[in-house]
Design goal:
The chain has about 500 residues and is mainly α. It has 21 helices and 5 strands. It has 2 domains: about 5-155, no CATH class; about 175-215 and about 280-300 and about 310-505, Neurolysin, domain 3 (Orthogonal Bundle), CATH 1.10.1370. The relative contact order is 0.12. Bound molecules: zinc ion. Zinc ion (ZN) binds near residues 274, 278, 304 and 307.
């Protein structure tokens, strides 16, 4: 039996590449947290140099030689020797390294540099265009980025749609054709559910969340929840940034950021829980596999499932707040002392169509994603042109959410993703929401007293279950395989839809 030991010369090379990439991540983290404003230009060069170095090593002849000892480059299949089979971890490792290597190898390095230069320019112009709400200003560079992404899909190759080649980067194995029925089912049930919620006689007042809350205390409470979730501060830290994120340099150093507004209690609170979910995944990866795919998170969709599971299934549930609400009341006695748990629970779960994706509630969030998925797929497949986007955007907002933005800043210009060339990224948010509920339903089956544990403030049982079933496997299985292995079923929108219908049906007395 051939094991990971056989692959030691290969994994030693991968480890070096990972160390370069992790060093670049430290620089990026610093850029988003503590770097002085004028450091940006030099920092961008430093990061680009390290990333270039990592890319060079990945596609180097040395690594190719190492890899093609075990993999037939013509077919991409593992070479089998009769009587001396590979064990499962080795097979997975080879499959995933080949995936990364062949993908990187297909893109000419001049193209990669051009794409990265154009996107960095597009991002700067996008930021200004959004500030001025001027889509015309962004249009020429978006047109360039879309053309480059179509070119990229051509290099990577695809069968049904060029969009698949881009999507596969973020969610291995996913295709537009597989996503479409998921979104169709979501649309068919979420749009009417939202209509019923809006027509309900129950009107939820969430103004209590927008009183004045001391920011230092908000942060302290965020740290308390993170600690209860099992986030290890000896292997992490919490800082402030403009947009909350999680970054990992190694399972022993996984950092989260948040933002805090005095008059918006949910922002810091739920971003801490959300990023905490991401961070538990990264802290739960097996450090012995650091540097190889077996020590890496599986996909963006699976990553997002971990953050959404904690943020929504746990963090917006009654059992969670039965324990944590009295603590929150003690932290903010003036603001919350007279507010009942039920009133607070309703406030944090209020559903309402809104213009901005990142502020959307659980019910409307996927409608925001759906419209982006449809638009970007049409763009990459060449069915719509960049100049059509503002009109198309507003029309879909009206159709799905019943509202339309007055300005492009609140509409088509609101997200950074397209300026970065991240086409195919958005659907992973919805996949994350669907995986989250399917995993959580399974956790409740396997931990019968889970609600009671959570009500007692004991979140470690859930964290351990996630670690055992999801985190520690890295990229051992494909996303498809993992969800079947954990839940016994393929990914389905049904658990998610049933969860929302139950939750909002009760809350809004539908
Ligand atoms: Zn996230």
């Amino acid at each position: 039996m051939k094991t990971l030991a056989t692959l030691e010369p290969l994994t030693a090379r991968l480890l070096e590449i990972q160390r370069i990439t992790s060093a670049a991540s430290v620089l990026s983290w610093d850029q988003e947290t503590y770097m002085p404003p004028k450091g940006g230009e030099a920092r961008a060069e430093q990061i680009a140099t390290l990333q270039g170095l990592a890319h060079e090593r990945l596609v180097s002849p040395d690594l190719e030689r190492e890899l093609t000892q075990w993999i037939d480059p013509a077919t991409g299949l593992i070479i089998e020797t009769p009587g001396d089979a590979w064990d499962e971890p080795s097979r997975s490792l080879l499959r995933e390294v080949w995936r990364d290597f062949s993908r990187a190898k297909k893109l000419p390095s001049a193209f990669v540099k051009r794409l990265s230069r154009e996107c960095s320019l597009a991002q700067q112009i996008w930021a200004e265009a959004r500030r001025k709400s001027d889509f015309g200003m962004f249009l020429p560079c978006l047109r360039t980025v879309v053309a480059l992404k179509r070119e990229e899909a051509g290099y990577l190759g695809y069968t049904a749609s060029p969009y698949d080649a881009l999507l596969d980067f973020y969610e291995p194995g996913s295709t537009a054709a597989a996503l479409k029925p998921l979104f169709d089912q979501l649309k068919a049930r979420l749009v009417p559910l939202l209509t019923r919620v809006m027509a309900s006689s129950v009107k939820i007042d969430d103004s209590v969340l927008f009183k004045s809350y001391d920011t230092a205390r908000q942060l302290e409470f965020g740290r308390l929840v993170l600690t209860a979730m099992g986030y290890d501060f000896a292997r992490g830290r919490l800082d402030l940034s403009a947009h909350p994120f999680t970054t990992s340099f190694h399972p022993t150093d996984v950092r989260v950021t948040t933002r805090v507004y005095e008059k918006e209690l949910p922002v810091c609170l739920f971003s801490c829980i959300h990023e905490g979910g991401h961070a538990l995944y990264d802290q739960g990866l097996d450090p012995r596999h650091y540097g190889t795919p077996l020590g890496e998170p599986l996909s963006l969709g699976i990553h997002e499932s971990q953050s959404r599971l904690w943020e929504n299934c746990v963090g917006r549930s009654r059992p969670f707040w039965r324990f944590f609400y009295p603590l929150l009341q003690q932290t903010f006695p003036e603001q919350l002392g007279g507010v009942e748990l039920e009133q607070f629970y309703a406030a944090i779960n209020r559903a309402k169509p809104s213009l901005i994706r990142v502020e959307a509630d659980e019910l409307t969030y996927n409608l925001h994603i759906m419209l982006r998925f449809e638009i970007e797929q049409d763009l990459i497949e060449g069915r719509v042109q960049v100049e059509d986007l503002p009109v198309l955007w507003n029309q879909k907002m009206q159709d799905y959410l019943g509202i339309a933005p007055e300005t492009d800043a609140d509409g088509v210009l609101q997200d950074v993703h397209w300026s970065l060339g991240s086409f195919g990224y958005f659907p992973t948010y919805t996949l994350g929401n669907l995986y989250a509920v399917q995993f959580y339903d399974q956790a409740r089956l396997e931990i019968p007293d889970l609600d009671a544990q959570i009500e007692a403030g004991q979140l470690i049982g859930l964290r351990r279950w996630l670690e055992q079933n999801i985190h520690r496997w890295g990229r051992m299985f494909t996303p498809d395989h993992l969800v079947q292995r954990v839940t016994g079923k393929r990914l389905s929108p049904e658990p998610f839809l049933a969860y929302l219908e139950r939750k909002y049906g009760e809350l809004y007395k539908l």
